[in-house]
Predict the 3D structure of the following.
Amino acid sequence: MSNRVVQGRMVTPEKLAELVEGESILEAESIADADRDCPECGGDVISVGYMPSVTEFVTGYKCQECDWSADDREE
C-alpha cells in the first residue's frame, strides 16, 4: 500500500506530489519514509518522486503532521 496519512487525510502518491508542488503533476512514484524529522514541528517526513513536467524529475518531502514541504531542486 503506497497511500499514507498526511495531516489527518489519506493521500495517494499523486496527491502528495501535488501538495508539495502546489499544482498538478504528470506522474508519481510510491511514497517512502524520508528518514528525517520536520524542521518546523519535529514530525515524521515522507518523500515522493514525481514528474512535474516531461523533462523534470523531482523528489518532494512533506511532513505528515504540519504544512511543511520541500523538494530537492537546487535554488
Notes: Residues 4-66 form one domain. The CA atoms of residues 23 and 52 lie 8 Å apart.
